[in-house]
Amino acid sequence: MTFAEMSASEFVHSTDTRRMGTAENRAGVLLAALAAGSLLLTGCSGSAQADGENATPQDGGVLKVAYDVDPTCLDGQQVGQNVTLNITRQITDSLTDQDPKTGEIKPWLAQSWDVSDDAKTFTFHLRDGVKFQDGTDFTSASVKENIEAIEDLGAKATIGQSYIDGLTSIETPDEQTVTFSFDKANAQFLQATSTMNLGFYSSKTLKQTAEQRCTGKDLVGTGPFALDKVEHNKAIILKRNDDYDWPSSLAGHDGPAHLDGIEFSIVPEASVRNGSLLSGQVDVDTSVQSQDEKTLEAQGLDIVSRANPGVVYNLVPKTTGAIASDKAVRKALIKGIDREQLNTVVSDHQAPATSVLAKSTPGYEDLSAALAYDPDGAKKLLDDAGWKPGADGIRVKDGTKLSTTLTYWQDAPFLELVQQQLRTIGFDLQLEKKTIAEVTALQAEGKEDFTFGNLTRSDADILRNYFGAKEQNANSRKPGEIDEILARTTETLDEDERKADFTEAAELILDEGYSIPIVELTGIVGTGRDVHDFSFEASSRYQLYDTWLGGDQG
Amino acid sequence: MSLRYLASRLVQGLFVLWVAFTLSFFLLYWLPGDPIIAMLGAGGELQSYDSAEVARLRAEFHLDQPLIVQYLFALGDLLCFDLGTSIQAGTPVTEAIATALPSTLALAASALVIALVVGTAIAVAATLTRRPWLRDTLAALPGLGVALPTFWVGLMLLQIFSFRLPLLPAVGTGSPAAIVLPAVTLAIPLSAIIAQVLFRSLQNAWIHPFVTTFRASGYTRLRLLLRQALPVALLPALTMGGVLFGQALAGSVVVENVFSRQGLGRLAQTAVAGQDIPLVQGIVLFAAAVFVLVNLITDLSYPLLDPRLRDAGRTVEKKDSGTFAEAAGNEGARP
Fold first, then answer.
1. Are A319 and A513 contacting, i.e. CB atoms less than 8 angstroms apart?
2. Which residues contact A544 (CB under 8 A, 6 or more apart)?
3. Any bridge partners for residue A519, and if so which?
4. Given a cut of 70, is residue A148 above it in pLDDT?
């Protein structure tokens, strides 16, 4: 009797969950009573807000930020989730900082640094007087134990580990000096020291297990804000670190942060976030839907956005796949997408891809000529390769249909337009939206012809990391010319030389069709009238040290 | 009521829990996807993983064992009252549930109180009125209440009472005012069920001879209804306890999402999306346990409310509302 009743009520509510317009999937159907659909991260980013006025910043106030998803694990050394890293950036500092405008690396906890000519040895000279929020000193020993902790985290710290790949020793000759030695050239390491994935925690934090650190208890950094309270699905509260006096050289002021604290609440419903922002119940909506942008702007609220640097939203072919192994097919896909037309379905703040890399990536070069829309060229490529149109318009070769199923979890409605565009060249792209858990598991199996996604990093090294045959090898291909070029990029810190090499690699990647770029990932953030200097660091995560609240402008 | 009856009910309850545990275990494991990859890929960006490390983590959660061994592991832990650790958040499952529980309880309790008051009021008013159009309108309300999607009602209430008129907060679990809109939203389908059942049984009670007898002895319609017919009609409504509880729990998934409230529903939703198997199982087990308990309490309380069942002892049988009213009606007419 009990179960019959339970399932009856389940069915009533499973209809409700469908109305929420969220991802339908087998997990959701099976557990309809429990799952209200998955409300997923779309990725947040944006560009520094240009406050027109030159008002004097005011101290005080708690910034109320509405997140769309709950950061399940709060340890920034362990996860690459934007919602986590936005918090990590406020509670930890890094050795260096990266200028979001120029991509230059600037002093932060390290006042200066020396890099050997072979890019194998990096020595950092630390700032004096820096303290963790628990009162302990930040010294070269802290740097050493943090990096060693990342090594110990294993697969739980994939991102951090890719930054310190090949590390042979960490020397600490004195409290203010730390030297990293690598067994091979590792030019990207300097930029990596500016990321929050390599942010620093106190010894007390590092003594805990990985699981304990995830819960956010005793997650102690040196940052301008300290983690005060973590209640999942309710609120994550940060309070100002009053002793803070070691901001990045890029910061707008000295001493403690302007805000008394920051309160992140988790508001999964987009319309509720929007209404709460409009009615002043929250100060920041971190994920504005494109249909709400006009309303916010009409009401005089600011929309800020900055494209995530790194690899854009793209289709990634696996050379082991039945149809993705054909270079003609991969190239035809690049030619068959009309990126200008995609403008009509994405936000005004979002741009179609002009390269494998987003425009906000240091070392980016415009390669839009290689991405020109050329449906006739695409058809010719496919004809020449033996893919002949079948009765239903879908091309066929030796009994194989030019058809693939793409699973994805992102909020990416533009894929439906891509689907239509590719249909006209005779390519059948079936779309299946699933949960992150299902999609990542399918990707890990590596059986699909194409995957979809982006990668955030404010350094072109993401190309080497993701496409390199010795690294993640996204295309499951054999080592080749691309890898030789990518290897060169690790050997020099000369920006011009690196840019030239990365551009050559990107051109080759597009020429081989190893990436089919679509649009840039841009998170759209709405801020209330009282919010000033809401800014973004180089990887498009929030930097709220200079942010202030002031309600004096009517 | 004998101890034997109680013991057999408890054994039945444990059986239900075991079935719930087993079913949810196999359903979750047969889902496509991999909880370890899901944990590592929490950021959602494309990544590849060191397969040796993934294998090590898989072993840590016993996920490398054959399914039946994993099941026995999990069952063994359960017998030691160990529900395991959430794969995603790293907190013990019991702690995660204990943190989420109070706000869901507060929400469900306030919704039930509102639903009882509103549902009873609608049923009583529909029974009392002599105007057919009013009675028909009131009698149609429960159908409407069940049909309105909770999700939509929640958003409408937010639009009106939080965004347009700044009366109540839209977001959060903290302040007492924050519970008003979610409780009202959740109360609508619940009150519809109560009103429907109560109205039917009141109508049944109303046509019985004891009503005529009481009216002849000078009772007003209102007094007769409240003092005599309502207590009789409440009995069948009591059997709805389990259904109402299920409805409240299922509704909390939607309501907690719309109103951004902490709670079991939100916890369940994120756990399912992230394939956090230990956490989903913990929640399923908890819900099943409360179900068993609510039904047991309902059954045990019948004899307390209905004198005829005290003699019947353990042969508790469900009677349709007509019989109850008739029997009670005869009793009522006796003095």
1. no
2. A63, A89, A90, A225, A257, A259, A262, A534, A535
3. A313, A352
4. yes
The DSSP annotation for A282-341 comes to: -SEESS--GGGHHHHHHTT-EEEEEEPSEEEEEEEE-TTSTTTT-HHHHHHHHHH--HHH
Which residues of A, range 307-336, sit inside 8 Å of B by Cβ? Answer: 311, 316
Q: Are A40 and A23 in contact (CB under 8 A)?
A: yes
Distance (Å, whole) CA A293 – CA B198: 48
A158 touches chain B (CB under 8 A): yes
Burial (CB count <10 Å: 0-12, 13-18, 19+), residue A117: exposed
CA distance B318 to B309: 11
Where do the H-state alpha helices sit in B64-218? 67-79, 93-128, 132-147, 150-158, 180-206, 209-216
Q: Does A282 touch chain B (CB under 8 A)?
A: yes
Q: Which residues sit opposite A230 in a β-bridge?
A: A236
* Rounded percentage of chain A residues whose pLDDT exceeds 70: 90
Structural contact between residues A238 and A225, judged by C-beta atoms closer than 8 angstroms = yes
What is residue A274's predicted lDDT score, i.e. its pLDDT?
A: 92
Q: Which domains does chain B carry?
A: 3-79 (no CATH), 93-320 (1.10.3720.10)
Residues of A in contact with B249 (CB under 8 A): 33
Hey, is the C-beta of A36 within 8 angstroms of any chain B C-beta? yes
- CA B252 to CA B189: how far, in whole Å? 12
Q: Which candidate from B54, B103, B163 shows the least CB-CB separation from A275?
A: B163
Q: What is the mean pLDDT of chain B?
A: 80
Catalogue all structural domains in chain A, each as residue range(s) with its CATH number: 2-35+58-305+523-549 (3.40.190.10), 310-516 (3.10.105.10)
Tell me if B150 and A215 make a contact (CB, 8 A cut-off): no
Contact residues, chain B, for A39 at CB < 8 Å:
257, 273
* Cα angle: A294, vertex A300, A302; to 5 degrees: 75
Cα separation, A246 vs A475, whole angstroms? 43
Summarised one tens digit per residue, pLDDT across range A276-332 is 999 999 999 999 988 899 889 998 899 999 999 999 999 999 999 989 999 999 999
Tell me the β-bridge partners of A401. A396
Q: Does the beta-carbon distance from B268 to A80 stay under 8 Å?
A: no
pTM for the full predicted model: 0.81
| B99 interfacial to chain A (CB closer than 8 Å) | yes
**Residue A134 DSSP symbol:** T
The pLDDT value recorded for residue B173 is 65
Looking at chain B, the whole-number percentage of residues with pLDDT higher than 70 is 85
Output DSSP code: residue A53: S
Structure tokens at B154: 């929640």
Long-range contacts at A338-346 (CB < 8 A, ≥ 24 apart): A338/A373, A338/A375, A338/A421, A339/A368, A339/A371, A339/A373, A339/A518, A339/A519, A340/A373, A341/A373, A341/A417, A341/A421, A342/A414, A342/A417, A342/A418, A342/A518, A342/A519, A344/A417, A345/A413, A345/A414, A345/A417, A346/A290, A346/A414, A346/A519
| Mean pLDDT within A215-230 | 93
The amino acid at A441? A
**How many A/B residue pairs have CB atoms within 8 Å?**
275
